[in-house]
Amino acid sequence: MLDALDDQLSRLGRYGATATLTAMAVLAAIAMHFLLHVMEGEPVHVRVLFNIALDIAVVTAPIIFYARDVIDQMKRNRAHLDIMSRRLAVSVDQAESANKAKSAFLANMSHELRTPLNAIMGFSEVMKDQHLGPVNNPRYLGYAADIHASGHYLLGIINDILDLSKIEAGKMSLESAEEFALCDTLESSIGMVTALGEKFGVRIETALPPQSMRLFAVERMIRQIMINLVGNAIKFTPAGGCVTVSGMAIENGGYAVTVKDSGIGMSDEDIVKALTPFGQVENKMTATHNGTGLGLPLAKAMLELHGGVLAITSSPHQGTTIMLRFPADRIVSGKARAAA
Prior knowledge:
three-stranded antiparallel β-sheet; 2 domains; elongated
């Protein structure tokens, strides 16, 4: 009924609606005054009724006019918001379609590149290791080694693109998740980048979790996360610096693994850029290290696939701390395992 009344008033316009509502208020006030005087047995004076009508009209007319103006403005804003909401929904659908098309293109392209790349790596390995006989020219051996190293580097990039595309498309699953000792996985991951630390003069210190701390996850992903994070920490830490990997229990039964370095650090804007696929932070050490800007976004995506959270704390020239927070449902302690 109120909506129907509002529609009728809207057809009259602001002035017509104000006049109608003011007249209704005046009539209601006169009727109430008349009834009260009749019930009390007192006489009703026309002059008093006129004064009441005038007072009500003077007081209510401006208020009603302003209220109608506000209501009209709210209706216009609501109509504008409805239009903007529809446009936003269309834009979101287009963005999602474009993102899916991009992911599909990257996945298809990566698959097409990986087949010939494996052949290049295989043949170059045969040549550099001289499996079919000696190569008399040492320069050829050097070229074969360079080809093999470059192919291995490109294959790593392609695999990262494939993994990120699968996660974005929702096709990366945790079906192969299993229980394993977190300490062993962290230790083996750090071992894979130890040579990189020695090359750049960066020492690695650890405070690893006990053997009883077990994780239910895809071990390959956890290992890749740690290799990416520790490798990045080493690359962006000057010689003589230190990278520390440690673990600790957190609230609600979860567990956190922290990678802390004494490197060049990042600003808030740099952190946002570093978490964007293919986003690379420009600094004095960027030119000396190869990279595609996929390591950190891939680590974040893989951790979130496990229900975890990646948090970065950093300031320029103050180093960077990255914390990997695993939820309680991924942690299997020794006691819980024995009870199970």
